[in-house]
């Protein structure tokens, strides 16, 4: 798996060096950085821009690329033992998923469950989350209704994000809980909303349809932290 960009490069070097298989450089680095890289005991390759662009698939690599171990998703059975989860249904935009992962990790969520997708290209999620995807447990559970039922069987209160719900600011949260958010445009399916324990919304100050799913997720997460 190839990840690229200066920020994620240094984050992995500093926090997850054990997953690095190759270091790929398309630019010179100062002596301090070079010495740090050499101490890792990992193969370092200098590559030309053509190869760097090919490996980054045209992305802005900034001269810094890493080949890392393939991402391993956390089993759903493990995630069900946590206390505070974000459940995403049919959210496919890598930028949004990465932003949600970053907010979730920073604000204290224990894990993320992605439903409606059979697989997910984690290279982009790792990069867009600034590396938080390497720290936050992420599980795949394709069937949304099974996910809701299994969480409820583990004493989770599952909250659906929907504009017909109660203002999240009026609620108090503790114990095992999960917030379910759907894709932009489609939202959470009505059948899934009906199976959730409660429905929540973000009250708008102005007459506007909705927020970007990543922005909405960050607000819900912050409001649903332990009191």
Strand order of the largest sheet: 7-6-5-9-8-10
How many helices in DSSP terms? Answer: 9
CATH evolutionary superfamily of the largest domain: SPOUT methyltransferase, trefoil knot domain
CATH topology of the largest domain: Alpha/beta knot
How many domains, in number, for the residues? 2
Number of strands: 10
Helix content: 25-40%
CATH architecture of the largest domain: 3-Layer(aba) Sandwich
Task: Note the overall shape.
Answer: elongated
Order of helices and strands: EHEHEHEHEHEHEHEEHEH
Unreliable stretches: none
Overall mean pLDDT stands at 93
Query: Which structural class should the secondary elements be placed in?
Result: alpha/beta
Biggest β-sheet: count, sense, barrel? 6 strands, parallel
Beta content: 15-25%
Intertermini distance: 40 Å
Using only CA atoms, what is the Rg? 20 Å
Under CATH at level 1, the class of the largest domain stands as: Alpha Beta
How would you explain this protein's 3D organization?
The chain is of the alpha/beta class and 227 residues long. It folds into two domains: 2-68, Ribosomal protein L30/S12 (60s Ribosomal Protein L30, Chain: A, 2-Layer Sandwich), CATH 3.30.1330.30; 76-223, 3-Layer(aba) Sandwich (Alpha/beta knot), CATH 3.40.1280. Helix content is 34%, strand content 23%. The chain contains nine helices and ten strands. It has a six-stranded parallel beta sheet. It has a four-stranded mixed beta sheet with strand order 1-4-2-3. The radius of gyration is 20 Å and the shape is elongated. The chain starts with a strand and ends with a helix.
